[in-house]
Amino acid sequence: MHNKLECSLTGESHDPSVLQGLSSAGKPLLARYPLHELQNFTPEVVRRRQNRSMWRFHEVLPVNNPDEAVSLGEGGTPFLRTIPRGEFARFEHLWVKDEGANPTQSFKARGMSAAITRARALGVRTVALPSAGNAAGAAAAYAARAGMKCVIFVPEDTPPANILESVAGGATVFLVNGLINDCGRICRAACDEFGWFDLSTLKEPFRIEGKKTMGYELAFDMAEASGSDTLQLPDVILYPTGGGTGLIGMWKAFDEMQQLGWIGSQRPRMVVVQAEGCAPIVRAFERGEREAGVFPNAATVASGLRVPAAVGDFLMADILRQSCGTAITVSDEELMRGTLQLSAEQGIHGAPEAGAVWRAAVKLLDRGWIHRSDHVVLFCTGAAVKYNHLLGADGVIRLDQHSRQLLVDLKRGLSQNEQHEL
Ligand SMILES: Cc1ncc(COP(=O)(O)O)c(C=O)c1O
What sections of 277-351 are H helices per DSSP? Predict the structure, then answer.
């Protein structure tokens, strides 16, 4: 359990025992734990735990004991080594952390599990949030699990799957003719008016706590992959960045693990990946600025990346600098190609955001920024199933079961379809 909430800009302390939003400076609050008192919290103890969910790290999550968690089994996601096939063979050590295997099929489950756990413990009855899509579905599910009401504000062109899952989860859904920052403004006003708790990412302290568990898990995954007991981190992490909560969360996890004595001071180079049509953090990075402002006319099919303004912009800038990282864009065409490559060549049915990080990795390899021998991890933050509306069915072959020349038809179909070299 945390014993402090600190402003990420000024370090000012805020009361951890009551509901908190942003700090008095208007910046994200970060939970701090008495790490030096956690002598019994060791990698060996974590490894022995039966519970494979993210709550196996409960000492550094906002609970007094793990039974308090509002959980659907989030975390413990697959860590997949890519098969050296096609362009994937250009990397000697490439892994995908497949967050699509989470409840509600995205990494948003981790953040919602932690935030709704803490909100319930502090007596919240209704949560409200703006979302690009996946956070909405996750919030609806965890609120349902917790017996809370959930109000969601999403852009009207949010993927249908996200809207449907939110409604099915019992949430009240408002479709807004604007972007996620417009939704955020309306959500804030509604929370002030109706007394709902604002669950906007980084505007309450605990979604980041859930997402940081990706960083803890990664250290265990990497150790297991190399057959070692010593926790390890990769050389490079590519993260599809909207609000950046996962990136900031993982960085926090690395610092905590160092303070716990679990890892040393070495850090991965962190890579922010955004879409060409919405790249506020990349733009700020290229300009050498710490604050990113609002990206105009934000547009990309990767809905999770369509976040024109991020409250944690300055934290990402610091991480990119401290980690000797970089920030890069990919076009929508590139990221869709990457998504299909991951599916067809690796069997990993990821969200377009995953296609984005894969294509970004290839670009950085071409530029010599990533080396062939680097240990590289791609974050696949969600599953393809939410994005069926973006996928075509070209190449599907119709077959008449009553045809007298069934095998001839079948052969004709095969030869017409170049994809099927059987
Ligand atoms: C699939 C997917 N990937 C990435 C992101 C961006 O996440 P973050 O806010 O941690 O940058 C989102 C956010 O909606 C998402 O849904």
Answer: 280-287, 313-322, 332-346
